[in-house]
Every structure is written in structure tokens, then in C-alpha cells.
Design a protein that fits this description.
6-stranded antiparallel beta sheet, 44% helix, rod-shaped, single chain, Nuclear Transport Factor 2, Chain: A, alpha+beta
Length: 273
């Protein structure tokens, strides 16, 4: 049994290197298939193949240089690059989320048209509400002025009478009234006021109070809407009858409710405060 010997690059005798090279060349020739030679005649008969033996050179065979040991990282990178073919990374391998396909352009237009339609409808609704509120405000402001003037005109007529012409006074007052209050006023004046005034020769004269310096009458609007208003009045009533020796002055506060009708603003309620 031959002892194994280790061969180190650059060491050893020339004869040993020559034998090693010759053995390698013989092994290569033994494993290589022999190509047949083609004939030169018209029939191109194939001649049996021949094996060529090459004599070693006088200087002997030299071993090819051994490759330098590569770095571990370079070896791993080269092995990984040669083992797997180059291919683009998939979104799942790279950790990125797959990109969604953008929606069709026609769908975006339909959505935009629908949104614009909703915005337009909302704008019209808001404009209608604001217009209605503005119109209500204007009508309420107009109602305040009209109801205030009607209350100042109605108070002296409704709250005054004279036993000498009761029917005329009550008829003038009823013309300024409306609704249930008109019926109630007719029953009260007929059953209570008229008999008492006739018996005691009663005379009542009412006027809306005014400041001593001649300012505006003491009338104010408590609330107002396009069809209804509540007015507060300060009324002075002077009463004369056979029951008193001299005229009596009563200072009253009256809350008068007015309602707009086809014939204008009319009194629908009177409350003494």
C-alpha cells in the first residue's frame, strides 16, 4: 500500500509533477470518445479509429495553477446567484402590497356627476330655506308695523262707549274684531255693559297713553309673525256715571292680540293686566 503524500503548490520534484500530469492526460484520453476518420474516396468509407499518443515534453508536464481561496461571503453570493435564476421580485416576496387596479375612467365620471348633483340639490335646498327665512322675516317685520297701527286705532274704539248711543259704539267696535272674541264681545255688551250704562248713564272714554312731552304713544309689540301679533298698550280710561261725583281716571295696561284677515288686521283678544 502506497503512503499518501500531500502535494503543495510550488514544492515536489519535477519527476513527480511529470508523472502526475501524465496520469491526468491519460485519464482524459481514456474517457474521450474516438472520432472516426472520414474517407477521401467517392464512397467515403469509414476507417477504423486510431488512438494518438502524445509524448511528454522534455521539460515535463507542469501542473496548472490552483485557484486562490475565495472569501466566504463572495462564495455564498456566487453560489446563490448561480443556483437561482434572475427573476423580478414579486410583491409578496419584497413585502410590498400589490397595487390596485385603478377604476375605469367612466366610473369616476359617473361618481363625480352624482356628487355634483347631490351638492347642487343641497345648495338649492339651502337657498330655498334661506329665502323662506328671509321672506318670513320681512313679512314679520311688516306685520309688526301693521299690527301696531291697528292696535293703536282699535283700542280707543273697543274700550269706549256712551250710554246715549250704545248701539252705534258697539257696532263700530265689532267691525274691528274677529273670531270668537267678536262673539264674546257682542254677548257681554248686550247682557252686562248696555243695561249698566243705561241705568247709571255711564260714559267711558279710552285713549292710548302718551308721554307728557308729546312723544310716541306707549305701545310696543310683544311678538309678531306674518299672521299674528301681540301688542302691549298703556290705556287711560276716564269714567263718568251717576255713581261717582266726578270723573274717575283709570290707568290700565292692556294686552291686545291681533290677527290678519282678508279685511286687514283685527283684534282677536283683549286682556287687562
Amino acid at each position: 500500500m502506497a503512503h499518501p503524500t500531500s502535494r503543495v503548490r510550488g514544492t515536489g520534484s519535477p519527476a513527480r509533477r511529470t508523472l502526475t500530469a501524465a496520469a491526468r492526460a491519460a485519464a482524459k484520453r481514456a474517457g474521450r470518445p474516438t472520432l472516426p476518420e472520414r474517407g477521401t474516396g467517392p464512397d467515403q468509407e469509414t476507417l477504423p479509429g486510431r488512438t494518438l499518443l502524445i509524448d511528454p515534453p522534455a521539460a515535463g508536464w507542469e501542473d496548472p495553477p490552483e485557484p486562490e481561496p475565495a472569501e466566504p461571503s463572495e462564495t455564498i453570493e456566487s453560489s446563490a446567484s448561480s443556483a437561482s435564476p434572475a427573476s423580478p421580485e414579486s410583491p409578496e416576496a419584497s413585502g410590498e402590497e400589490p397595487q390596485e387596479t385603478p377604476p375605469p375612467r367612466g366610473l369616476g365620471r359617473r361618481v363625480l356627476t352624482a356628487v355634483l348633483g347631490v351638492v347642487l340639490v343641497a345648495g338649492l335646498v339651502v337657498a330655498a330655506v334661506l329665502g323662506w327665512q328671509y321672506r318670513e322675516g320681512r313679512q314679520a317685520e311688516q306685520a309688526r308695523g301693521a299690527a301696531l297701527a291697528a292696535a293703536r286705532q282699535a283700542a280707543p274704539v273697543v274700550l269706549s262707549y256712551d250710554y246715549r248711543h250704545l248701539d252705534r259704539d258697539f257696532a263700530r267696535a265689532r267691525a274691528l274684531l274677529t273670531g270668537h272674541f267678536r262673539d264674546q264681545y257682542g254677548r257681554t255688551t248686550k247682557t252686562v255693559v248696555a243695561p249698566t250704562a243705561t241705568k247709571y248713564h255711564g260714559v267711558v272714554k279710552a285713549t292710548v297713553a302718551t308721554p307728557s312731552d308729546g312723544g310716541a304713544p306707549a305701545v310696543s309689540v310683544v311678538s309678531a309673525s306674518p299672521d299674528r301679533a301681540v301688542v302691549l298698550l298703556f290705556v287711560n280710561q276716564v269714567t263718568e256715571s251717576t255713581q261717582v261725583s266726578e270723573p274717575r281716571l283709570d290707568l290700565n295696561r292692556v294686552r291686545m292680540t291681533l290677527t290678519r284677515t282678508s279685511g286687514g288686521w283685527k283684534v282677536s283678544g283683549v286682556d287687562a293686566l
